[in-house]
């Protein structure tokens, strides 16, 4: 995105009173927020602006200012009014019109087969007059907009293409594509500032919401320095950070349902997983008696994260057992705590006589 592109865009805006803005299929908050911010800015500058989307906006975009102005086509003043009749071969003989008392009457004369449709089957629709200038926001291919307007009829319409995707085909009279931008809203913010348009609270909030969504709430590693600069400027204009309630509720629901299975099969599966885990822990515990296990990631010479007492006990050399003396083998009844004595006292080897009294 360079300054010549901005100057060309400014010239086209000055030369057109009617301006259209269009987003592609299934637009996200970034694309729609940028488009609506541009819509509000151009409208505040005195232009007659239309905004359309190739698909119906989803509920997730309902918090954006001006979302109710998004249509599925460019319907404006000066367009053609088309009256459509169901047609089958041989049903209609002739179509004419008459003028009576200030009304234009369209007369459909039936053919030999007669008319099979009624007045409820007649369709009235207005074919909008295409603006002289159209902004496309986040639309990789112009063919993606075939549901919004007849592309072949755009020969007299100038297009400004704004996008940050590498898949964009580079169509249009003015191409504003910046692959280094982490969101389309960044580009539109810079464009609005360069055009000298006022950024009010509604415009700032739409742009900030778009940047936040395009950068995963500023957590994406591809978030550009420009995103933080633009976000700071928009917050100074009154934009606020909004909590992503839907994502938080989804995570909370998953955590709650993790240990609340809905059927017996899930209960058995969780029990099997728990038993398997306990079996692994038991094996690890048993193996500690034969070898010293180092924690994952610890070096062979370090003590890792073992408690000090455990490390000292496991690292202390084991005392070798001494062979028993001849006296010990010949006197197996010696107390265990006195096995180290070679010459036990003589009274240990004499019979014991009870000398006390007993009161019955």
Characterise the protein shown here:
With 360 residues, the protein is of the alpha/beta class. The protein is built from nine helices and nine strands. Strands 2-1-7-8-9 form a five-stranded parallel β-sheet, covered by helices on one side. Helix 2 runs parallel beside helix 3, helix 2 packs antiparallel against helix 4 (201-214) and helix 3 runs antiparallel to helix 4. It starts with a helix and ends in a 30-residue tail after the last helix.
Total E-strand runs: 9
Q: Count of DSSP helices? A: 9
Kindly, what is the distance between the CA atoms of the first and last residues, rounded to a whole number of angstroms?
A: 113 Å
CATH H-level superfamily title of the domain at 3-75 and 129-245: inorganic pyrophosphatase (n-terminal core)
**Judging by the overall fold, what is the CATH architecture of the domain at 3-75 and 129-245?**
Alpha-Beta Complex
What is the CATH class designation of the domain at 3-75 and 129-245? Alpha Beta
- Estimated structural class: alpha/beta
User: In sequence order, what are the helices and strands, one letter per element?
Assistant: HEHEEEEEEEEHHHHHHH
Proportion in helices? 25-40%
What is the approximate shape? elongated
* Widest beta sheet: strand line-up: 2-1-7-8-9
Outline the low-pLDDT stretches.
244-251, 288-316, 325-329
Largest β sheet strand count, sense and barrel closure: 5 strands, parallel
Instruction: Tell me the CATH topology of the domain at 3-75 and 129-245.
Output: inorganic pyrophosphatase (n-terminal core)
The average pLDDT is 76
